[in-house]
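Quick one, tokens below. Sequence please?
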């Protein structure tokens, strides 16, 4: 069982790996669109890149932990998350990026009650990096809503980060908020 406490950790590690030019190869579902490079519509013809990655959550199990001590029942997930990343290089060498996620048939079933759950995942990550470092922001929201009882569990995770001279990610500010009703 995978407790969701810090869902943004993987995204931060992927960002660090991308900055170091380390290959990052998440498990791709069939039909994943490859990245493509195009010329931007500006006078400098700065290259841009679009990439879509599909994460298959089939068989994953999550449990949400509330601030008042309650927990959700374990929920078996099915469906996928599509992440679309767009980056553009500027003439001074800076790379700006933006990433959005789109749920694709994402749903869940309680492993104890068999109750169906609506599962919503939204992420918005943006930033830029250059020789002088990285500045970025990410916000990830996961929501489980029981279809029968309407119990709702939401986890919101927000980070502002930068990179130090050793190329280590440094969290300037981060928040994690769990809401259960």
């Amino acid at each position: 069982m995978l407790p969701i406490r810090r869902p943004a950790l993987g995204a931060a590690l992927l960002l660090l790996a991308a900055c170091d030019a380390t290959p990052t190869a998440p498990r791709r579902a069939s039909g994943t669109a490859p990245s493509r490079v195009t010329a931007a519509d500006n006078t400098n013809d700065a290259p841009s890149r679009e990439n879509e990655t599909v994460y298959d959550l089939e068989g994953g199990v999550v449990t949400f932990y509330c601030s008042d001590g309650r927990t959700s029942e374990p929920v078996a997930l099915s469906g996928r998350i599509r992440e679309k990343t767009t980056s553009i290089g500027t003439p001074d060498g800076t790379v700006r990026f933006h990433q959005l996620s789109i749920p694709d048939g994402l749903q869940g079933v309680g492993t104890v009650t068999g109750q169906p759950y609506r599962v919503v995942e939204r992420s918005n990550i943006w930033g830029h990096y250059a020789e002088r470092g990285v500045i970025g922001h990410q916000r990830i929201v996961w929501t489980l809503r029981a279809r029968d009882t309407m119990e709702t569990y939401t986890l919101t995770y927000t980070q502002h980060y930068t990179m130090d001279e050793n190329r280590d990610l440094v969290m300037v500010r981060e928040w994690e908020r769990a809401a259960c009703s």
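The first strand starts at residue 2 and ends at 3. The beta strands are 2-3, 36-39, 47-56, 61-63, 75-89, 95-110, 116-130, 133-146, 152-163, 169-180.
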